[in-house]
Specification:
This protein is an alpha+beta fold. The protein has helices at residues 3-18, 22-33, 51-54, and strands spanning 57-63, 66-72, 84-90, 96-101, 111-117, 122-129, 133-140. It folds into 2 domains: 1-33, no CATH class; 38-140, SOR catalytic domain (Immunoglobulin-like, Sandwich). The radius of gyration is 21 Å and the shape is globular. The chain starts with a helix and ends with a strand. It binds fe (ii) ion (FE2).
């Protein structure tokens, strides 16, 4: 074996052993972000006393292939002082599906309704509070 090939193969071998696979890295990263970058019921992090008012509640209605997803955050809308900025709906691969921006001077409650056609699988709902960050919940369609 030529010296150049040997060095190249050695570097590739070392790299393969040191760098975890992409999916394992992504799973660990996601696990570490819950409770720190975003918040869930299981990982509320520094907002452990804020779960009830911030975790988005998802309800699904499925009739004749028309799926309606309603997202409700049990949070007040206190003008621009403290309010839910928006809801975002993502598919099971975290791809953007839809969003609803709230106007705290007009919207009395953070409730959003999304219509999906021919979608089956998991959906994620994000609810963003201007003081208590981003919360995520999930549901199956
Ligand atoms: Fe809040």
């Amino acid at each position: 074996m030529e010296r150049r090939n040997f060095i190249g193969l050695s570097i590739a071998g070392i790299s393969a052993g040191l760098i975890p696979s992409t999916s394992a890295f992504a799973k660990n990263k996601e696990k570490n972000m819950a409770g720190g970058v975003f918040y869930t019921k299981q990982n509320p992090g520094r907002w452990s006393k804020k779960i009830a008012g911030h975790l988005p509640n998802i309800s699904i209605e499925n009739s004749n292939g028309k799926v309606t997803v309603q997202v409700v955050t049990a949070h007040g809308m206190d003008g621009y002082t403290h309010y839910i900025v928006k809801h975002v709906l993502l598919d099971e691969d975290y791809n953007f599906l839809d969003e609803k921006m709230f106007d705290p001077t007009k919207d009395k409650a953070p409730i959003s309704t999304f219509e999906l056609k021919n979608y089956k699988g998991k959906v994620y709902a994000l609810s963003m509070c201007n003081k208590h960050d981003v919360w995520i919940n999930e549901a199956m369609i």
